[in-house]
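[job 0417] fold request received: Nitrate reductase
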Amino acid sequence: MDTSADRIADPWGARTPYAPGTPWPSRTDTHLRAGIAEPDVDRWVQSASLLHSNGDAMDIAVREGRIVGVRGRAADRVNRGRLGPKDLYGWQANASPDRLTRPLVRENGRLVESDWDTAMGRITARARHLLDDKGPGSIGFYTTGQLFLEEYYTLAVLARAGIGTNHLDGNTRLCTATAAEALKETFGCDGQPGSYEDIDHADTVALFGHNMAETQTVLWMRLLDRLEGSDPPRLVCVDPRYTHVARRADVHLAPRAGTNVALLNALLHEIIRTGRVDRAYVDAHTVGFEELAAAVEECTPRWAAGICDVPAAQIERAAEILGTAERLLSTVLQGVYQSHQATAAAVQVNNLHLVRGMLGRPGRGLLQMNGQPSAENTRECGADGDLPGFRNWQNDQHVAELAAVWNVNPETIPHYAPPTHAMQIFRYAEQGSLRMLWITGTNPAVSLPELSRIRSILAQERLFVVAQDLFLTETAQLADVVLPAATWGEKTGTLTNADRTVHLSEKAVEPPGEARADLDIFLDFAARMDFRDKDDGPLITWHDPESAFAAWQRCSAGRPCDYTGLDYDRLRGGSGIQWPCTEQAPDGTARLYTDGIAYAHPDTCESYGKDMVTGASMEPVEYRSLNPDGKAVIKAAEYLPPHEDTSADYPLQLITGRTVYHFHTRTKTARAPELNAAAPDVWAEISPAEASAQGLADGDLVQVTTPRGAVRARLRTTAIRDGMVFLPFHYGYWDTPAGHRPPDDGPGRAANETTITDWDPVSKQPLFKTGAARVTLVARRASDTGTRTETAGSST
Ligand SMILES: Nc1nc2c(c(=O)[nH]1)N[C@H]1C(S)=C(S)[C@@H](COP(=O)(O)OP(=O)(O)OC[C@H]3O[C@@H](n4cnc5c(=O)[nH]c(N)nc54)[C@H](O)[C@@H]3O)O[C@H]1N2
Ligand SMILES: Nc1nc2c(c(=O)[nH]1)N[C@H]1C(S)=C(S)[C@@H](COP(=O)(O)OP(=O)(O)OC[C@H]3O[C@@H](n4cnc5c(=O)[nH]c(N)nc54)[C@H](O)[C@@H]3O)O[C@H]1N2
Ligand SMILES: [Mo]
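[job 0417] inference complete; emitting structure tokens
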């Protein structure tokens, strides 16, 4: 039992060490509102965390119709009862007094309170008018990785078959587009190969651009417990900052930003050179090994050292560890994904596992991580740039199958081109071909790159913007209609975490005021639009979460993400269950690819792959001749330098990211007092050497400037690489003092004022971690402000 006394100072709590191959001990973390004890709780309602992708299972404590706390679920496979700081404190945001309680509509330039009928009436009228006047391509949807499966599926059906638009994507484009793409490139299909249980078995763990200690605190607790138990795994960390992960690593490689491909190619070079290739595995299950061997032949550690600025001996040491591992678990996240060669680098981690035969066995795991709680569902339901059920838009048979599930003609479902990615949707809005943008559960006015551009796109007169959120966010403030949404704890649905574990999250309390569940809003819209199937029946035949889940099960049947063996009752009471879950695998599936590569056959695969440099989609015939038997595809990539490199004007590399205490644009975590107090304002990290070279000191107010814009922040010197500056991207403007709108009167505090409109050519994920900036002094730290607050979250 860990009662979370001070889980701000110690985010991970007490250790429960364990030995390899034994189950992870449970530890039940609880946090209740001051003055409330467990016996005071009226009901515990089953749920899982909505503040990251780990899928921590928890029960929501309800007293007198209000949420009063949370308790981890010891029975769950994911967390065995543990909770992280955001899980423990974040629920308080639900009851924040500034929740949206009524729809708002814009009148004479101002947002005013309205009612559902008026708000939905305006949306429907605009959608009808645009459909008649300009066609379905004038309407777009930008959703999230934070709704429930049932909601994404409904949105995908109404957008793709109801409206008939190709312009539907999620903020998952900023988040896990590369995870999905890397899996498609290598395995022909999305779907996480590994399992969190691989931590229990691994003898080696490698984290590529993944600050797990801060961003998946509970998974990190699991790894810490292995590190403190007998026979601990070796740990390799690749991150330019000296993170908590780096501190525990046997080898910490701190490359220049944007050089992951060079580093990975050198690691592959060493593994091949030292004869550590699993030939039998490569021959049986892959194509493309010879091309890889040729491509990395010249990529020596010495060569990579020159590009990455990492000592060659350290690269050799890491290669030795990775090359001798018997049970290797790798994870990959934003340090790789938000980069100019995102997919190319993520695919090299897949290649590492293929050449070493490290798949499909306990401890031999690959986690191309997700970040958001239900990003997996956005992808599988086709509410991102994919078709539902991991279907291939280039495969007419797949489109026909989907059309049969929806009882529509195949031509109804746009598949003339790849589904439009989010960066392109915003481009269409900028150019004026897109005239209506419905934004659900995301705050692009803080989270997209180059915010001055995003603000000007959203503020256009000709673009009709709908924002569906809990709060009047920076984005909602620019909308024409604002819809108040219910959230976690106030509605029922399922969500699937990064290791394919499906959890049920049940409604615990009523939403505030007139706020409604996203599912109900979508169903209402579909009914008002009167979308029809090809027999003139209603297109959408479900009416609540459980019937929506059943509809999705029919769509998922026979596909890799098969949910047919699940139902709400099976998800109640015990642990979450990993898909595929079918009649043949009723308890779910721990690992994919235990029996060879399953979904890469040309008839089955979700994608025929793309060119690693241009991102152009391969033709079906090309894929068929490359990979007729549906093996894993080993794709080599040549290192290319970052698009925006440092210069005399902008001498530092700029990277952005997270702290343990906040979630994204802080709409929830800034409304939880403990979390807000732990990290109340933006800061900028540079190394002590860099600071002294520029005559700067800890606590100084500095300005971080790029060609796009500037941010003012307090300086923190940390053990980050020299030549680099890090900004957390959490801080927008909704909670700055009234009347003070920084981006209007000069430098702001949102990191994305400075980031660039540019993306990985393959996954189209924006480059939040490769840019160039300069840091200049604005004002010295006042001598009486004392030293900076130390937080467990900073990479000191
Ligand atoms: N506390 C907290 N947890 C979260 C979230 C949150 O907002 N707050 N968000 C959730 C979501 S949606 C996501 S996507 C995940 C993200 O989780 P992470 O990917 O772990 O988080 P980031 O801080 O974005 O980036 C990870 C690391 O990448 C490093 N990095 C930067 N550039 C490079 C590079 O060129 N190469 C390498 N190898 N590393 C580099 C950074 O120093 C940083 O430590 O976290 C999830 N969990
Ligand atoms: N510079 C920089 N920028 C980044 C990143 C980075 O590392 N650096 N990371 C990127 C990544 S990985 C991500 S995931 C994005 C995240 O970026 P966003 O998606 O913009 O971030 P959030 O603050 O999570 O926004 C979610 C919104 O949904 C609302 N919401 C919560 N629950 C519900 C619900 O049930 N229904 C509805 N309708 N609304 C709800 C919240 O109030 C909030 O306004 O940011 C990206 N931007
Ligand atoms: Mo994310």
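[job 0417] notes: Residues 345 and 578 are 27 Å apart (CA to CA). Residues 116-133 form the longest helix (18 residues).
[job 0417] exit 0
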